[in-house]
Amino acid sequence: MTRARIDERLDAAVPALIAACVLAAAAGSSIQRDVLALGRPGRWALLVILLAFALVRAAASLPVWRVPRATTFAVLAFCGLALASAAWSVNPHGTLVRSLALLAVVVAIVALLGCLPARPDLGDRMLTGVLAAAGIVAFAGFVYWLVSPSHAAIAATTEYPSRYQGIEQNPNTAPLLLAIAVPIAFVRALRAETALRRIGFGIVLVGLLASIVASGSRGGIVAAFAGLLAVTVFGPFSRLRKLAVGTAVVVAFAASAWLSTIPKALPAVPVATGVPAVAASPSANAELVLPLNQEIGNPWWTRTQGDSRRSLFNTNVRARAWEGTYHRALGRPLLGYGFGAEQWAFVNRYYAFDSQNPENAYLGLFLQLGVVGPIVFLATAALCVVAGARASLRGSRTALAAVGATAAALAAGLSQSYFHGPGGIAFVALWMSLLVCGTAVAR
Amino acid sequence: MRRPPTRWLLAFGALAVALLALIPIGRWEARRHVRHELAGIQRVLRAIGPYDQPSLDAYRKNVITGVDCLLYRRGANRFALEFCFDSAGRVLEGYDRRGASPKIWSVRETPESSTIHVDRPRLEVLVARLQAQR
């Protein structure tokens, strides 16, 4: 077999392997117990396989293997900071495991992207893997909803409307991945060479967006349309076409946001304003009156009915958690509590806030790595995005899709804390889109 | 593959040195944070006074695994002051609710860093007494 054929066969496996890694992570947070049992260990096994494969692939193209050094330096600085933070972490073992997993994912992606000078379409194949995985997650969710609607959607309460969650445990989980895939599908649809392919990618795009809107994930909607806007801005289109596409994206964003508000929460049970004085409460068990995990913003303090109803613009509950996380991070402002130690450093004391992390990746990084963490991360991201944007404006279709996906991934970080969790559904997609952007200058 | 230029090797070397230099800073910051939190917990305990007193008004049992809390009344506020201790008798958290918003000091994430110890069996008696009361 010739060298070219070996390379071709190895590269043909790339999208499937990446899709398998992303799907395993999705399975690792699935609501379906059998899928969950498969995904939990499977995601780690697949990351190891991805790393081994990437190193073999890099070795096979060693004479021409090359990555932009500035990008590699920046991303290794972030990984190094994560690794070093095990020395001051509140949970050194947890930090070590997560930082090593981050390093493994980053090394695997960089190893693959180093092959770009010899195999320019490899970046495109990697993004295909992300898009394929997202498409499968969306389709599987839809099928699951048809088969078992009560499991594929959470029931409405007096605080939340019914929300579609597909195969995941939480309505906000799948949209994280789907939002990153939306701009990839959009670029594929825009640049498709045949009408059939354009229709195919158009259907995928609509399916991804429909899943996000049905989930009611505000962060997912914002992230997906941030990605689409980035594609519009950095795409090599004429001014008139940019204006037309940009207007269509903004209109679709407004329509999606409105559609997500159609499901309503159940009518609230009338409660007299003004909570009875604490002194009148008879129980000696304080947890029954003022639970520690519901203290901040609790009606016990505000003396008014708790503000926990969900709406398009009501972010009071999350804002409470963000403010608390910010103050908590100020306890160790320089270097934080340790990479990946968010679940130990973050204490949920926030009324109606149902999460064990601050639901904001930037605040999460500040909490974990102090002010140094977000600075190094954002510097890395900026380096990658600038490289990707330049390549996009020069007409690189791969870079354009990666810029859109990165914009979506970074926007998703505003409402989800996921930059540090190697087993998370969007972790591989985030670092892959970022690094495909960052290596765009190599082509 | 081309050989990396010397300046990049130097840059990676400098990065490694910088990361190593962060370790003592990170550890110092962690110690400083623990000292600050423990000082706050000490202030709460001083404000409480003796653990067994008439103002002892409420409790929490197993609020996180093995962690119980005692709460003390000040005026009409039943939950004005609170401290939490783990199964080893280490005080992990202190709460002061006498103002308009809670003041919280906590070393929950690193229980082993707490140097404030209480007589756990004696406090368990107090928790049991409160449980039996109402």
Features:
A: 443 residues, two-stranded antiparallel sheet, 18 helices, 2 strands, B: 134 residues, 43% helix
What's the number of extended β-strand segments of chain B? 5
The H/E string of chain B reads: HEEEEEH
Biggest sheet of chain A: strands, sense, closure?
2 strands, antiparallel
Strand content of chain B: 25-35%
Percent strand of chain A equals under 5%
Profile the largest sheet of chain B: 5 strands, antiparallel
Largest interface: A-B, 47 and 45 residues
Characterize the structure shown.
The complex is a heterodimer of chains A (443) and B (134). In chain A, α7 packs parallel to α9 (218-234). Chain A starts with a helix and ends in a 5-residue tail after the last helix. Residues 273-280 of chain A have low confidence and may be disordered. Chain A has 443 residues and is an all-alpha fold. Chain A has 18 helices and two strands. With 134 residues, chain B is an alpha+beta fold. Chain B has a five-stranded antiparallel sheet, with helices on one face. The model of chain B has no long low-confidence stretch (mean pLDDT 94). At the A-B interface, α3 and α11 of A face α1, β1, β3 and α2 of B.
What is the structure about, briefly put?
The complex is a heterodimer of chains A (443) and B (134). With 443 residues, chain A is mostly helical.
Write the layout of secondary structure elements.
The complex is a heterodimer of chains A (443) and B (134).
Chain A: H1 3-27, H2 33-60, H3 69-84, H4 92-113, H5 122-147, H6 149-152, E1 153-154, E2 163-164, H7 173-190, H8 195-215, H9 218-234, H10 239-259, H11 286-289, H12 299-302, H13 316-329, H14 342-345, H15 361-369, H16 372-393, H17 397-412, H18 427-438
Antiparallel strand pairs in A: 1-2
Helix pairs in contact in A: 1-2, 1-5, 2-4, 3-4, 3-16, 4-18, 5-7, 5-8, 5-18, 7-8, 7-9, 7-17, 9-10, 9-17, 13-15, 16-17, 16-18, 17-18
Chain B: H1 6-48, E1 56-64, E2 67-74, E3 77-85, E4 91-96, E5 103-106, H2 120-133
Antiparallel strand pairs in B: 1-2, 2-3, 3-4, 4-5
